[in-house]
Amino acid sequence: MAEPLIFRVRAALGRVINPETGGNIIAEGAVQGLAADETGIVRFALDLPKTSRAQSESVLAAAKAAAEQVEGVASVSAVATAHGVTQKPSARGHSNPFGLKTKPRIEEAGESLRDVKCVIAVASGKGGVGKSTVAANLAIALAALGFKTGLMDADIYGPSLPTLFGLSEKVKTRDGKIVPVDAHGVRAMSIGLLVDEDQALAWRGPMVMGAIRQLISDVDWGPLDVLLIDTPPGTGDAHLSLIQSKLLSGAIIVSTPQEMALADVRRGVSLFRKTDTPIIGVIENMAWLENENGPRQYLFGEGGAERAARELDAPFLGAVALFPDLRQASDDGRPISQRDHPAASAFNMIAEKIAAIIPQA
Ligand SMILES: Nc1ncnc2c1ncn2[C@@H]1O[C@H](COP(=O)(O)OP(=O)(O)O)[C@@H](O)[C@H]1O
Ligand SMILES: [Mg+2]
To answer: Whose CA is closest to 318, among 286, 350, 340?
Structure first.
């Protein structure tokens, strides 16, 4: 399969040098909101805080030209933001496309993610497709690749990080902030460690938003290369508040292969697209049952999520088979990504693709 367009554009942008710093614009983390749609339209913003206006314009022109050269690109629309000033997350957009009455003041919460280079929501149309399992194992695999990685379990209705990571610690605070737990090489915090699960089940919109805001603003995330956010299934209040926060670098959608689940993939992709959140890609989980001695068994049909990704022109990041050991490891709180196991290899391959979009500097 050809490499997804967005990755090829990213590689081309990685060859554009900012003469003021001598570094390339990808390594500097200057390229933001990079998106490529099904018709070959590419969009991104260039954030060059330490660069003069004139210099910014010339780097922008070079970046546009580089992206236009990439095969499959029809047009490039790019803007330069911030010149000569440091742009804080709170200074980013404030649009409210959902017409909600109580607009959460989540932009301010974003201050505490100031030193996080890349924030990725892990979403799924349905519950039980393995979203949390995938998020947790990918976080471990990214950490093993050398990225400072965080995992925020924001699934209000079914927080599973405490089980997956075997966490039972009491939440600690320092200087009025919640200290994330360091487990399996990952900086982790779960809504399940902050509130009683039964209580959270009854929450409505504004409370969900409040909880998400707290997970962002009250937790001392510190500097991270990448923060994965395990979101509740579907596209509800938690997603809307994350999207509104303008903190997301992109979203990953996890699905099982059957047609029923794929309708939800389309819905998820469309929500994120409508709100200008780039789709980093689709992962197919429980893709087949791995048998030691027999052929693979495609319990839910073959390759459905990959087909849906192709239809939607979203990158396909890879498939993870159904492994009884993975289920066992998850229940035991001993993540499989830390072992020599085919499931770990599958997560590593996907993590390497995600690594390609994490700013390097
Ligand atoms: N690839 C897989 N192989 C075997 N079991 C899996 C796999 N992915 C998830 N599971 C199991 O399926 C159940 C649901 O997974 P979970 O990650 O909690 O889903 P979600 O977060 O989407 O609700 C868990 O028991 C988990 O251990
Ligand atoms: Mg879950």
So the answer is: 350
User: Per residue in 39-64, pLDDT tens?
Assistant: 888 888 787 877 777 788 889 899 99
Residue 122 CA, ligand 2 centroid: distance in Å: 10
Give the Cα separation of 319 and 287 in Å (integer). 6
Q: Distance, CA 197 to ligand 2 centroid (Å)?
A: 13
Look-up of token digits 């030193």: 115
Q: What's the DSSP call for residue 337?
A: G
Segment 148-193, tens digit of pLDDT: 999 999 998 888 999 999 998 878 888 888 899 999 999 999 988 8
CATH architecture of 5-87: 2-Layer Sandwich (3.30)
Nearest of 145, 149, 139, 142 to residue 117 by alpha carbon: 149
Fold of the domain built from segment(s) 106-355: Rossmann fold (3.40.50)
How many whole angstroms from 137 Cα to the centroid of ligand 1?
Answer: 11
Q: Whole-prediction pTM value?
A: 0.72
**What pLDDT does 289 receive?**
92
Strand, helix or coil for residue 110: helix
Note whether 5-87 and 106-355 share their fold: no
pLDDT tens string 250-296: 999 999 998 777 888 888 888 888 888 899 999 999 999 987 788 88
* The one-letter amino acid at 290: E
3-state helix, strand, coil in the chain (%, to 5): 35, 25, 40
- For residues 251 and 253, give the distance between their C-alpha atoms in angstroms, rounded to a whole number: 7
Mind listing the pLDDT tens digit for each residue in 199-244?
666 666 667 777 888 888 889 999 999 999 999 888 888 888 888 7
Query: What ligand 1 atom has the least distance to the C-alpha of 133?
Result: 17
What residue segments make up the domains of the chain, in order of their start?
A: 5-87, 106-355
Q: Which ligand ends up closest to the CA of 327?
A: 1
